[in-house]
Amino acid sequence: MRDIAVQVHSDFDGRLKWRSRYLIHKARRRGRTGLLLQVDLRDPPRSMSLKWCLVSVTESGRQLGSIDRTSIRKVRLITLPPGPHSLQLEVTRHRARRCTQAQQNVVLGQGDILLVTCDPVQPNVFYRRSPVMDTWSAQILQADPNA
């Protein structure tokens, strides 16, 4: 088995799930600051795979949120205080006992939402091929000054 690489983009490709759009709207309406974690997980053709993974975000050793294949919701909104944050983005493979990590430093203002999406390496399915490396994108959605 070869090692799996990780790639972090600062731009977002625009594919938001319905629940992500709903949570962003709800957080903005209430003036909350936080992190929106969206993970694109697909069910493998078999029940278990070496690529089965757990996606998590931690800050200074404290786990903020995690999503795996058994999670009902693949989108999480985590409330964070305004200010600087050093986030550890991690994908852990259960059976292969490997993980990839990326560090993301951000400064959030009042009402800002950090949109973090992850597309981890997964088994290929007939309707979509898996990326060759874990792909993260992170973008700060600024608070609306007119609100």
Give a quick rundown of the structure.
The protein is mainly beta.
Annotate the secondary structure layout:
Elements: E1 6-9, H1 18-30, E2 34-39, E3 53-59, E4 62-68, E5 75-79, E6 83-93, E7 98-108, E8 113-119, E9 134-141
Parallel strand pairs: 1-9, 2-8
Antiparallel strand pairs: 2-5, 3-4, 3-6, 6-7, 8-9
Question: What does this entry look like structurally?
Answer:
By secondary structure, the protein is mainly beta. The chain is 9% helix and 45% strand. The chain contains 1 helix and 9 strands, in the order βαββββββββ. The strands form 2 sheets. The protein has a 5-stranded mixed β-sheet, covered by helices on one side. The protein has a 4-stranded antiparallel β-sheet with strand order 4-3-6-7, with no helix packed on it. A hairpin with a 2-residue loop joins strand 3 and strand 4. It is globular and about 45 Å long. The N terminus is likely disordered.
Essential attributes:
147 residues, mainly beta, five-stranded mixed beta sheet, disordered N terminus, single chain
Number of helices: 1
Structural class: mainly beta
Instruction: Record the strand order, biggest sheet.
Output: 1-9-8-2-5
Integer-rounded radius of gyration? 15 Å
**What proportion strand?**
35-45%
List low-confidence stretches: 1-5
